[in-house]
Amino acid sequence: MSNTADRPWPDNLRPGLKVTRDAIVVVPGIMGSELFDAETGKTLWGLRKSAWYVRAWGRGDGLEALALTDDELSGKIGRVRAGDLLRFPAIVPILSGIEPYTKLSKALSQVVSHPDAVLGFGYDWRLPVAFNARLLAKAAADHLEKWRLRSGFEDAQLLLVAHSMGGLLCQAIPEDSGLEDVTRAVVTLGTPFGGAAKAALLLNSGLGAPLPAGRLRRLVATMPGIHALLPSYRCVDDGADARRLTPADVGAIGGSPQLAADAFATRDAARPLVNHRALIGVRQPTLSALTIDSGVVTAQPYTFVPEPDGELARRANGLLHKVHGEGDGTVPRDSARPDSGAPMPLAQQHGQLARSPEAIDFVRDIVTNIEADLGPKLGVGDGIGLSAPDFAVPGTPWIVDVTGVIGRAKYSITDLDARKVIVRQRLRRVGDGYAVSVVLPSPGLYRLSVAGGGFSPVTRLVLAIGPQDS
């Protein structure tokens, strides 16, 4: 016998697909947005043909326009315009390949009330995280307001889905934006909360790239967005100890000390994400530590082990305890791990974390179930409420009112002096709740316990005192 229905459902009884009434904003990672020349409309980043990347990273053709000018570094923004989320694969030396966001966006459009509920937030990823975070806050607020008006869902909230550096933007959203009050949850995919050692390697030498190292260094050294990915965890191996990278280190290896200081300050000021759910890449060999010798950076395939007190673990001979660095191939596991809550691990490369079927299923499940996950379980009400006095007269009946119970409910009374249950029976329903008449047999201390609906029992102590004892 089949468990599926053979006959079609009548329209008024047809089960609906599980969708969210909320508005969604997809925030891509670094180099995950198309960029255009604002005056000519020429595409600067995000072209479809791979031949462009061959020319760009092989000979440097077309890269000059991506470098920040002195005007842009001083805050005069507008020469470059951000477009849609990346629609075609792209690749960056050292940071590796970047997959398009079309699959993720399409999957999300299938679990909302209307595709208009999904906004792809393209941004100029060359610029500072704090600057782009302000733009994100405004774009998200405008998107939510328009979605509420269009849908009629006045109680709709925001769901932010961020890949890689996009999570750093979410962390840097200004507190006075008010966005925290209307955000249901934030989902991050491979966000480098603590940075990535590869960013330092990219600023220093460009080793591993066919592009001449000097040209690559000059390009990325102008970009606050690259500096935003610098590691802030203890990654510099000095031999006897490990320490954090400093702005002075960054200047010595070819980056900008000021851009590094600004990036570290933004990270230090980051605020906790609302109902954060994190997916992190694991099982991929990941460069996680650095050695610096006369201004030359070497990325190392190992990391260090912190003790419970925060000190780094050492071997019996006093040397630092090192273990193989793992993560998503770009972001070390520990860097992607949120400050609180257990992340969801996925054996996958960084660029694929927003595209793989497992990652998309993870995001879809949160989007469609986060409101339920934050609320009561099916069959569970708002919680058991118990109304009973602190004192009672032995032999005199009194009423206990119970609310919030779904399904079978029962109560018990325990004589704490005798250490035995003297009453155990079901509650009777009275209107929307339950009520029971209780009589305590003699002076003493009793525990009244009510259970039902999947909750732990709610208990209350009652002291029975005779008139002669008062």
From TrEMBL:
Keywords: Acyltransferase, Transferase. It comes from Kribbella voronezhensis. It holds the Pfam family LCAT. This is Lecithin:cholesterol acyltransferase. Residues 325-349 are annotated as: Disordered. SUPFAM superfamilies: alpha/beta-Hydrolases. GO terms for molecular function: O-acyltransferase activity. Signal peptide: none annotated. GO terms for biological process: lipid metabolic process. It comes from the Bacteria.
